[in-house]
Amino acid sequence: MLPLLVVHGGAGHIPSDRVQDSVLGVCAAVRAGYSFLTAGGSSVDAVVEAVANMEDNPRFNAGRGSVLTARGDVEMDALVMDGRDLSSGAVSAVKNIANPVQLARLVMDKTSHACLTAGGAAEFARQMGVQEVSTESLITDYSRARWKKNLDPGAKPVECQMGKMGTVGAVAVDAEGNIACATSTGGMLNKMEGRVGDTPCIGSGGYADNSVGAVSTTGHGEAIMKVVLARLILFHMEQVPALRMDQALITFQTQLTEEAHVYYTSDFCYMCVNQLLASVKPNNSSISVIINTKFTVTMQAETKTRDTTLCKWSQTFVEGGHYLVNIKISGVHSEPSCDHILQKAPHSVYLPLLVAALLLLSLSLVFAAAPYIYRRRDTSKFIRTICCRSPRYSLDNNEPPLDSEKPKSTRLQSLDTFRGFSLTIMVFVNYGGGGYWFFQHAPWNGLTVGDLVMPWFVFIIGTSVVLAISSMQRRGVGRWQLIRKVTWRTVVLLLLGFCFLNYSPRDGPLSWSWLRVPGVLQRLGFTYLVLSLLQIFWGLIPVPLRTKPFQDLTLYWPQWLIIVLLETVWLCLTFLLPVPNCPTGYLGAGGIGDNGLHPNCTGGAAGLIDRWMFGDNMYRYPTCKEMYQTTQPFDPEGVLGTINSVLMGFLGMQAGKIIIFYKGSNVAILGRFLAWAVLLMRGASRWNRGVT
């Protein structure tokens, strides 16, 4: 990754005659420390070198240039900390040391202690071969003049602090991503002898942790120590909301001399207008943003002064990953480019699915092997002995059972299996689908597993209606009795939808304003009613003894006529109904889709009809709202959507008729299913080409 070094020359007021030299001193410290980073050195090397450079500069309150104590002496503090393992070293109240920060580095590297002070630190310095310097070499004329001024009985403490530079420090990140900090100071002007401030205190004068960041403080030491300021800052950085499901962090950094703007659009957003993601200030500035990882996104970086895009790329970000995009210019005459760096590896988001798949596979193998294990003579005897001790199953009783069981009515196991599978997936999808995008509904265009659940279930309703009503007909149940049963079930579904699933009493327990009239159960209830009536009035036809080609179609021509009329109504309303301020036949999501030309046309004619019939009593947060930034309410369970549900259910009814007509001939049933599958797939492909 790109190394980074930040230094500070201390808080405080800088007299105008010292500003230029102070700025030059900070720049020199940056160059000295950064040279270590570019040469492959560690972040600890960089911060120690940068701070030592400022200790040698008399313009700063550290090393040579330190302020004096009340007795006119120099006592200095310093701290170094390595973010890799939280190791640290510090010295306090040291004298006659030109570079206290280097001595603090030795404490960290050569001892098991964290801090040495005064005489103990001096003795350790002699053991390490650190050369002592005279006190006079550390005192500047400027420091001595200010010290004498402060000794004047009429001196004001606030005025005496004017012109004093504070503690110096540096933080760095090396190419390996390791973080370090270093801080050094001469303390407070005219302080008491032996006074130790915040600088050598870990968590006050500085702190570094690879997992969070690094801090080097400057200011009033006593106030800093009260709150352990450095660690407190990192604590608040840790409190930044962690990345949630389907989120990744992207940091944009620019070396350009002008502001760069990064725009994005999701590849699942059809013809959407580019949206501003981040604006990056010039001259090595950076900004971090959180982005959704559900879909592939296309990004592009631009500036106001350039007519062309700086860089453009498409990428699928992965949940939990930290990414860095560096917008730079390699040479004087080079064009800008973007470097992509992975700073933190993303999560293994598909591992739970793999575990679930292996678990289901294991259970399937167990159930498949169970009958073979049970058939083994010894195993079956053991099971009957343990579980079945009645005389009927006694091992000594060789007589047949006294009561013969009546044959049970068989169920269509394939239908039960498909129904159970669909219900399981439906519940999983309704509870978030584990956060996986393919178990959720597509924003508008596209098709996911979540979008298939409803058609599957409606198809099963149609098949079940044919089989159930045909069975009741054979048992002698009358037509009006069937109508009462169907009507009652429909009313129950509608009431459940109104009163439980789609009711939100925000304005009181009996409020109407937040009632959602169209809903999932309402759609299923109306579909069930129409399909059942079709079967009751025009489907109770005895199956001929001899099957003829296409008789499962021709015998039920009234049903087909009604379905064709319903679909004709749907087509006419969808493609011919004028929608105010929208193109006729519009099928888009509106919002920022379709290049933002039709922002208030969500759903076209379907949305218009539902808003006219139900007003605000419909779904206000459709799936397309987040991605397409729509403002109009839209309900996929609306009037025109229910007509299509009837069509899907009717196809399920056709499957039920095939099962009845060709009962006992699995080859014929599968052949008819295959023919219908080919026909529907060809029709769907032609429809898609026509709409496109």
UniProtKB/TrEMBL annotation:
Its EC number is 3.4.19.5, 3.5.1.1. The record marks G166, T167 as: Cleavage. InterPro entries: ASRGL1_meta (IPR033844), HGSNAT_cat (IPR012429), Ntn_hydrolases_N (IPR029055), Peptidase_T2 (IPR000246). Residues 411-499 form the Heparan-alpha-glucosaminide N-acetyltransferase catalytic domain. It comes from the Eukaryota. CDD domains: ASRGL1_like. Keywords: Autocatalytic cleavage, Hydrolase, Membrane, Protease, Transmembrane, Transmembrane helix. Pfam families: Asparaginase_2, HGSNAT_cat. One of its GO terms (molecular function) is beta-aspartyl-peptidase activity. GO terms for biological process: proteolysis. Gene3D superfamilies: (Glycosyl)asparaginase. The active site is at T167 (nucleophile). Substrate binds at R195, V196, G197, D198, T218, G219, H220, G221. It catalyses: L-asparagine + H2O = L-aspartate + NH4(+); Cleavage of a beta-linked Asp residue from the N-terminus of a polypeptide. The chain crosses the membrane at residues 349-374, 418-439, 454-474, 486-504, 524-543, 555-577, 658-679. Belongs to the Ntn-hydrolase family. This is Isoaspartyl peptidase/L-asparaginase.
